[in-house]
Amino acid sequence: MLTDFAKIETFLTVVREKSFSKASAKLGISQPAVTQQMKYIEDYLDVQIVDRKKNGIRLTKEGQMLYSIGQKIERCVNNAEKELLKIMNKDVTFVFGASFIIGNYILPRFLNNLKENINNDVSINVSVSHKAIEDLLDKKIDMALVENYIPDDNIIYREWMEDEIVIFSNQPLPAKAKAKDLLSYRWVCRNPDSHTRLIFKESLDKANYPDCDTFNVTSEVTSATTIVQTVLHSNKDDVPTVSVVSRNAIESLLKAGALYESRIGNQKMVRKLYIAHRKDRKHDAFIENVVDYLLKIK
């Protein structure tokens, strides 16, 4: 069993996530597979290592001992992988496919450190999530970073980080917008097929607010960059012009006081971002190294 680090990795992830289902999402494997691997460990050791509770899991005494051993093995494996990568270093460019928000606003923050970490040049193809996944399946890119989970048996998805969507304007807004506030604004809306617009509509529904189709919509825009610039340069002496966008896209403008943010009452509009790679590269050292790096910086 100690020669099969995948099972140890599953155990460590279950402990850290305190959940079989969360470990499943983190590892990119099914929950039954997580359960099966945990059972294998318990059968192999002939002891119970975790107690499953309604609010998570609890390690048994033997489970605590295994966790300590597993951490030591993990450190050894990570150090060995770094040494192997030095030997395997290839004169190639690692290509990412990324959705607009990730490719334009999130990934560039870490790009230089990532290049140093994998000892290779990095390139980013920015497009919509569906296009990134298509390119991944067509082997045009090495990894996709997307905000849409697009099921495919040939793709492994790993949950990465959360992305908050906010209402914003170039005029001060209430921190918690009421329905009447939203109805009074001029809106630059996302296109009807936008994932961001779908999340916005769902959040309005949960808060029992009017549907955004009833708002005072002045235009519909596809590009997040165009939306930000349209709102940024709107008339400050008139009714506020607002829209919704990832907070990552306007963080610097919020800090500079050029834009202001608001939320739907007490709700936060949050979506998951995903790391995706082809299943046939599951044990590729370069892929594993990049995934490990991205999971650490989230």
Automatic annotation (TrEMBL):
Keyword Nucleotidyltransferase: no
SUPFAM superfamilies, per the entry: Periplasmic binding protein-like II, Winged helix' DNA-binding domain
Entry's transmembrane regions: none
Gene3D superfamilies on file: Periplasmic binding protein-like II (3.40.190.10), Winged helix-like DNA-binding domain superfamily/Winged helix DNA-binding domain (1.10.10.10)
Keywords assigned: DNA-binding, Transcription, Transcription regulation
Xref: InterPro entries: LysR_HTH_N, LysR_subst-bd, WH-like_DNA-bd_sf, WH_DNA-bd_sf
Domain HTH lysR-type, chain residue ranges per copy: 3-60
MF terms in GO: DNA-binding transcription factor activity; transcription cis-regulatory region binding
Segments forming a coiled coil: none
Family recorded in the similarity comment: Belongs to the LysR transcriptional regulatory family.
The protein's name: LysR family transcriptional regulator
Species per Swiss-Prot/TrEMBL record: Malaciobacter halophilus
